[in-house]
UniProtKB/TrEMBL annotation:
UniProt keyword annotation of Hydrolase present: no
UniProt keyword terms in alphabetical order: Membrane, Oxidoreductase, Transmembrane, Transmembrane helix
Lineage, uppermost ranks: Bacteria, Pseudomonadati, Pseudomonadota, Alphaproteobacteria, Hyphomicrobiales
Single GO molecular function: oxidoreductase activity
Top-level taxonomic group: Bacteria
Pfam family, one: DAO
Record EC number: 1.-.-.-
FAD dependent oxidoreductase domain span: 6-371
Transmembrane domains' residue ranges: 7-24
UniProt-recorded name of the protein: NAD(P)/FAD-dependent oxidoreductase
SUPFAM superfamilies for this protein: FAD/NAD(P)-binding domain
Length: 402
């Protein structure tokens, strides 16, 4: 580790490592990069504990386009991220698609509005009536469904830690430094941050500091005298076995089932020979940074009743595993915050992904690298999700949050 770096990234999970990769891979960047990660095992990182999915079915064009790039990048990941002397990283992308179900006129209206946005962006999403839905997925009870939205391509799930470690390994091969330490202070002189201070006692001068610290984003910002409305929100994921698994019964997509979002908010998707499920919590307070105790009651009280009512195949199911992770939840508008602080120009935010960080990491990494290297976005303009709206208390709401 050197005494000074052009860019210091606080947080080395998927967002921080994506930024490090895109910087190091950019032929127009000849600077130095340091990634500071407090836990290199990533056991409690939002990256590792996510449901590992990607979709284009969002309500805002920018989020649709972010995921379209993410999907393309993930499909080409093995070749782009190959490190000399090592096997290609296989993300095992499973193109199952997403299936949103509307059970009320309000939900139907939202699906139609979102679909118009998605189609305008070129997303491969279709709307189905009740009969079309029943024909595609015969195992479902559809009597209460008014409309369904299904992603025919560009959506699915993949290896979450494979994405993280692929970014990290390639970034290191290209010259980025990683250190196991924790940022405990950020020095600032007027409108510029000048250095980070580490728990080990080291002080590292920085030309630019990037906040990629996930659910701890607000803590990192406060060290620089700044603020961001991001806090950890706990989400529990359950893996269950199914006595009569319906996987293979679909009449579309080679029989594969999608990630289904029930009108209740419960979601479910295949996970190998099992299924993975979760739900929005009834109460959703900020979680303690170290609280990873699963909300066990959610399965019996919320998830199983909804799934059993949706399909006879889900009447006899048994939990085989569960875990809790944290969303880096943006309480203003549930949307990512990416960009420079208007008054501290060399402090960049890459935070508040609200459960979408894994799928949004490729576009975020590319966008932040462009800001640093060129002073502006050159591919996908992320200005709409910049920090200015935080200062102005101007929500840029994402309605399609799971």
């Amino acid at each position: 580790m050197n005494e000074r770096y052009d860019v210091v990234i606080v947080g080395g999970a998927v967002i921080g490592s994506a930024i490090a990769y895109f910087l190091a891979a950019n032929p127009d960047f000849d600077g130095s990069v340091l990634v500071v990660e407090r836990d290199p095992t990533y056991l409690k990182a939002a990256t590792s504990l996510s449901s590992s999915s990607i979709r284009t079915q969002f309500s805002n064009p920018i989020n649709v386009r972010i995921s379209q790039f993410g999907s393309e990048f993930i499909r080409a990941f093995a070749d782009r991220m190959q490190v000399a002397g090592e096997a290609k990283p296989d993300l095992g992308f499973h193109p199952g698609g997403y299936l949103f179900l509307a059970g009320s006129t309000e939900q139907e209206t939202v699906l139609r509005e979102n679909h118009a946005v998605q189609k305008a962006c070129g997303a491969d999403v279709v709307l189905w009536n009740r009969d079309e839905l029943a024909n595609a997925f015969p195992h479902l009870n559809v009597e209460d469904i008014l409309l369904a939205s299904y992603g025919r391509s560009g959506e699915g799930w993949f290896n979450n830690t494979g994405l993280l470690h692929g970014f990290k390994a390639k970034a290191r091969e290209l010259g980025a430094d990683y250190v196991t330490d924790e940022v405990v202070g950020i020095d600032r002189e007027g409108g510029r941050v000048t250095a980070v201070r580490l728990r080990s006692g080291a002080r590292v001068e920085a030309g630019t500091v990037v906040n990629a610290s996930g659910p701890r984003a607000a803590l990192t910002a406060r060290m620089a005298g700044l603020d961001i409305p991001v806090e950890p929100r706990k989400r529990t994921i359950f893996v269950f076995d199914c006595a009569r698994a319906p996987e293979g019964s679909a009449t579309v997509n080679g029989g594969r089932l999608p990630l289904m979002i029930d009108p209740s908010g419960v979601f479910c998707r295949p996970e190998g020979r099992f299924f993975l499920a979760g739900c929005p919590p009834v109460e959703d307070p900020a979680a303690d940074f170290d609280d990873f105790e699963p909300c066990y009651e959610e399965f019996e009280d919320i998830i199983w009743p909804a799934l059993a009512g949706r399909s006879p195949a889900f009447e006899a199911i048994k939990v085989v595993n569960q875990w809790a992770g944290h969303y880096d939840f943006n309480v203003l508008d549930h949307n990512l915050v990416v960009g420079r602080h208007p008054d501290v120009q060399n402090f960049i935010f890459a935070n508040g992904f609200s459960g979408h960080g894994l799928q949004q990491s490729p576009a975020t990494g590319r966008g932040v690298s462009e800001l640093i290297v060129y002073g502006q976005y050159r591919t996908l303009d992320l200005s709409e999700v910049g920090y200015e709206r935080i200062v102005e208390n101007r929500p840029f709401l994402e309605k399609a949050v799971i």
